[in-house]
Amino acid sequence: MKKFFVLSLLALLWLAVPAFAQPPVTPSFKEITLKVDTSAYPFSQYTLTFQGEEHLAFLYTRENQVAEVTLTPVAPNIQSVKLAPSADFTLLDSIVNVNNEYFKFRVRFKNLTASQFLNFTFFVKKADTPEPRTEIVKLFPHTQTTAKLLQEDTELFIGEEKVFELTTNNLANLKFPTDWVKGEGLEYRLSERNGILRLHVMPTALGKRTLKLNLQTIKPSLNQNGRITYDLPEITQTFTVKGSRLRFLATDKKEMVYDDVARTKGIEILIENNWNLSLQKTYRIEDQEQPGGMLVAELFTRNNVTNNKVLCWLRIFNYHRISEGYLYIKDGDQAKFITNFDVIPKTSIKSVAIMHEGGDWTTNLTVNPGEVISLRIEGEGLQKAQFNFEDLRDITADSTLLSEQSAVFRLRVPINITRKRIGIYNRAVSTGYALSVKEHQRPKPLDFVLLNYGDKPRKITSLASGPIFYEHVLKDLVLSFSPNLIDQERKLYGQQYLTIQVRVTNNRNELIDQRTIENVVICPGDNSPRAAFYGEACTQGEISLNNYLGRKTYDLNEWSKVEIIVSHNKDKYGGEGFSKKMEIVLRRRVKFDTEVSFPAGLLVKNQGTDGYGSFGGISMAMIAQFSFYHPEKINRYRPYKVGAGFLALNAFNFSNNADVKRDLGVVVIGSLYPTTRDTKLSFPLYLGGGYFISKSKDPWFYFLGPGIQVRF
């Protein structure tokens, strides 16, 4: 028993070994080379491990860099290579197999700095595998970004903001602070204006002060050791800070909001203390040192606090910017100190406008689910506002769209939004403005409308623009609809408002019936992500035109015509919409009727007699005959007819001459008619033969000649 157990265990181990000993999958390409400008980057030499995965690293100098890619296969058994499409690049050339040695193609990258998780995904079909294999080559773009401060004027004055220009070769790749950063005796911040990076420096202490600026990049670079780095070399600049003629008193707040509270009650602030600053006293703050300056604010000193500060009330009366110059603290008209701060207006909104994709700015604040809009807010003091929008996704990418007077946002409306009203808030406080959510109401091409005039429904967009010939009894004309063709996952149209016009004419083009079916509303089907939000007043089922027509389609004569026009109600779509016109013509190929004609001057040849007889007089023929319609024209006859009937030879020749032969014959007759339409009297040419009833000997005869035809 023990021996049997040991043998079973060994057998199981022997079976399990192949499952763990499978060799790794061999890549299809032994080399992948990316050529950018004049540099080549083979994968074997420029492999970089990032986040635990191998990447092909390459240096780029332009956002939309063009690169050539060469794929060298391991074995010549690759039948085809396909590159999966991506939003990060565009394939410029088809992938070409060069003499079964390597594959080659070109791509143009899109916005390399903003691209994340960049890779090539190949579908490789080999001769020995039934299905293509997916291989992913991860890419690691890097670039050399520089930023320098070239400034000879290094003199600053206490309390005075100074702006310097930073030179850089790739502003889009820089990450920089936009708020004030405090340093040792210096405060600074960075801003961008018209594509120029600016450094704002505000000294707060006297003497030699060194500014150390450390910037980071969005896309990294490789240092001398081939390591990834996001840090730029530190920018160091030493400034000489001098004091002004008047003592600068700094405030604890750099920005003051001018509103009714600041104008009447005032704002509580802390200001630096000075032996010459009196308590319980009101000082004027003006924009110039000389008397008669504009009154910006009043400062009332209350009492001393710790850290050598004075608690004050600041009442504001006008706007001011630090960049406009110093503010002077005056006792009467005499300047005692200087200070500086921004006085900005209270955030107020004057107007809100939106712009749909492909449209213009409008104050109609109606949006549709699933769309991307631009929203513009105009007013005052907007740079400090924090706007948010209920249930909307803010995809604004450019911070320069925010200023004191205007703020522009890029917003995406969720396709499954349930709100009918989207509030606009500033720091959780309603601004009083809101967006209205309205279902899409765009005209959809009429491929969702089907017409059945015979055996099966057909899309009206696939029907011919000219006449549609139908050779059977037209039992009915039925319009049906395919609601699931209206809305798609990312392209919504909404309810479709249609008008159906029907016009029926006979074979003489005379109007015999006319109807207009209005208020046909087709709602998108259940596949629409907005199906639950559409109204209930939707047209259900099919529309049978016989339910509306007084003259039913099955009662129409040959060559009658039913004209149907399906069109959008353009009043619902701002004058836009689609229209489709169809003409159903009841065609016949042959017509059977009875005619009475009067052959005159027939040349008759009797069987069994020599020669031809003389021309006869006026005869009468009653013929049941077939007329043939032209196959490419509407209600037009061919110029010939074939029939059979009776011929009364010389029926209207009342002469007593014995040579006049009168007789009645049964004939088969062919005739050639003029093609003039709607004529009651015509002059055809007859050719035929027959059998005289009264003759027992040689009754057969043939005839040829003109005649007179009367059509009833």
TrEMBL record:
Residues 1-21 form the signal peptide. It comes from the Bacteria. Keywords: Signal. This is Uncharacterized protein. It comes from Adhaeribacter terrigena.
